[in-house]
Design goal:
With 93 residues, the protein is mainly alpha-helical.
Length: 93
């Protein structure tokens, strides 16, 4: 899906960060897809609603160590959890 894989057969493509993210989301039971639009050459993705959105928001931070560089994962996880706490506090009001 990334530029380095463009035009290569599947067997010769390298796994990208986006591939890892999609695999992780799917392992959590979330149907997330990303594709490049033929018309605009921009990435598009499926919208997450309801249960799938909640699952991804709650469980993805636990998987950051698999997706992100090791030196960044703890910081991103803390920020994600703070953001999630703020969102949940707004819902409870």
């Amino acid at each position: 899906m990334q530029a380095e894989n463009k035009g290569k057969p599947k067997s010769q493509q390298k796994q990208t960060h986006l591939d890892t993210l999609l695999e992780t989301a799917r392992s959590l039971g979330v149907s997330l897809n990303v594709w490049e639009s033929k018309d605009t050459n921009k990435y598009e993705w499926t919208s997450l609603l309801g249960r799938e959105k909640r699952v991804l928001l709650q469980k993805l931070p636990e998987q950051f160590g698999k997706i992100l560089p090791p030196e960044r994962a703890p910081t991103v996880q803390r920020l994600w959890n703070v953001s999630l706490s703020i969102r949940q506090a707004r819902i409870l009001k």
